From TrEMBL:
This is AGAP012397-PA-like protein. InterPro entries: NA-bd_OB-fold, RPABC3. Its main location: nucleus. Coiled coil: none annotated. GO terms for cellular component: RNA polymerase I complex; RNA polymerase II, core complex; RNA polymerase III complex. It comes from Anopheles sinensis. GO terms for biological process: DNA-templated transcription. It is found in: Nucleus. DNA-dependent RNA polymerase catalyzes the transcription of DNA into RNA using the four ribonucleoside triphosphates as substrates. Common component of RNA polymerases I, II and III which synthesize ribosomal RNA precursors, mRNA precursors and many functional non-coding RNAs, and small RNAs, such as 5S rRNA and tRNAs, respectively.
Length: 76
């Protein structure tokens, strides 16, 4: 995929260290494998349940189109 700004695999090190603020949201404290950077990420735990020790890939991109184009916004 073109337009990738950042990509790494993160390991969940801690969840909700200050307690849960909302029923459907968890705060993950993660560490990346390649760059050893820390990430604090809030997720909808009902839609995307995570556990301690889980790994996930985070990709930031300028577009989701594989050819790198911005695409068109279809407004009804």
């Amino acid at each position: 995929m073109s337009g990738i700004l950042f990509e790494d695999i993160f390991n969940v090190k801690d969840m909700d260290p200050e307690g849960k603020k909302f029923d459907r949201v968890s705060r993950l404290h993660c560490e990346s494998e390649s760059f050893k950077m820390d990430l604090i990420l809030d997720i909808n735990s009902w839609l995307y349940p995570m556990e301690l020790g889980d790994k996930f890939r985070l990709v930031l991109a300028t577009t989701l189109h594989e050819d790198g184009t911005a695409g068109k916004l279809d407004v009804l």
